């Protein structure tokens, strides 16, 4: 699809940017296990572009309907860039970051009170501040923990959760909340 082509171009553009500007040529590839637990395959790349500074691009894509009879789904795609400042060395120890998010979604029928009887289809954009910590677990492997909080804007149409459910309303709103949460396995490429 056209969207996937754009995401692939963005992914390789970040890699090219990292290759051009990285002093130490430090790269990492990662996957967030918390995000995987939502049945969402995801991948991130991160590279250093100055001492103690890195740039990251993560993305996830979930095309699955979890239960067809109840029309239970968590379909979405998400792109999340982030700039990080590391207090000691890049890819080690504590860091803070500024993140952004863009997602399109079609979710509903989930065992949450506000999504049990409704389905929401729309998009959201957000930005926030992240705090995290990374530590080695094996040669070339790190574990990274992070949490972010910030602002979201979303616009969506709300329907009954059943298949071909009736349209209820269109909603647009601003909210404060989590913008990232991760327990990631990181493979270091130097």
Major sheet: arrangement of strands = 1-2-3-5-6-7-8-9
What is the mean predicted local confidence, pLDDT?
A: 89
Structural class: mainly beta
Encode the helix/strand succession as letters: HEHEEEEEEEE
Total of helices: 2
Biggest β-sheet, characterized? 8 strands, antiparallel, barrel
Range of helix content: 10-25%
Radius of gyration: 18 Å
Strands, count = 9
What are the segments in which pLDDT stays under 50 over at least 5 consecutive residues? none
Q: Measure the end-to-end span.
A: 33 Å
**Beta-strand level of the residues, as a percent range?**
over 45%
Shape: elongated
Give a structural overview.
- 13% of the residues lie in helices and 65% in strands.
- The protein has helices spanning 2-21, 33-36, and strands spanning 27-32, 42-50, 53-62, 65-67, 72-86, 93-108, 118-138, 141-160, 167-189.
- The radius of gyration is 18 Å and the shape is elongated.
Entry keywords:
8-stranded antiparallel barrel; single chain; 2 helices; 9 strands; mainly beta; 190 residues; 13% helix
A few lines on this structure:
With 190 residues, the chain is mainly beta. It is built from two helices and nine strands. The longest helix is centred in the N-terminal third of the chain and has 20 residues, at 2-21.
How is the topology of this model organized?
Blueprint: H1 2-21, E1 27-32, H2 33-36, E2 42-50, E3 53-62, E4 65-67, E5 72-86, E6 93-108, E7 118-138, E8 141-160, E9 167-189
Antiparallel strand pairs: 1-2, 1-9, 2-3, 3-5, 4-5, 5-6, 6-7, 7-8, 8-9
């Amino acid at each position: 699809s056209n969207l996937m082509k754009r995401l692939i171009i963005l992914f390789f553009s970040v890699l090219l940017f990292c290759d051009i500007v990285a002093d130490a040529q430090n790269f990492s590839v990662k996957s967030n296990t918390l995000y995987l637990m939502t049945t969402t395959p995801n991948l991130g790349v991160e590279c250093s572009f100055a001492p103690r500074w890195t740039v990251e691009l993560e993305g996830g894509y979930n095309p699955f309907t979890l239960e067809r009879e109840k029309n239970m789904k968590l379909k979405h795609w998400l792109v999340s860039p982030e700039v990080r400042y590391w207090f000691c060395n890049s890819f080690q120890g504590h860091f803070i970051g500024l993140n952004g998010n863009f997602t399109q979604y079609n979710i509903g029928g989930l065992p949450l009170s506000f999504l049990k009887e409704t389905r929401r289809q729309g998009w959201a954009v957000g930005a926030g501040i992240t705090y995290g910590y990374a530590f080695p677990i094996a040669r070339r492997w790190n574990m990274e923990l992070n949490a972010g909080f910030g602002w979201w804007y979303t616009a969506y149409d709300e329907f009954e959760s059943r298949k071909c459910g009736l349209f209820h309303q269109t909603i647009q709103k601003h909210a404060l909340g989590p913008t990232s949460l991760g327990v990631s396995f990181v493979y270091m490429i130097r």
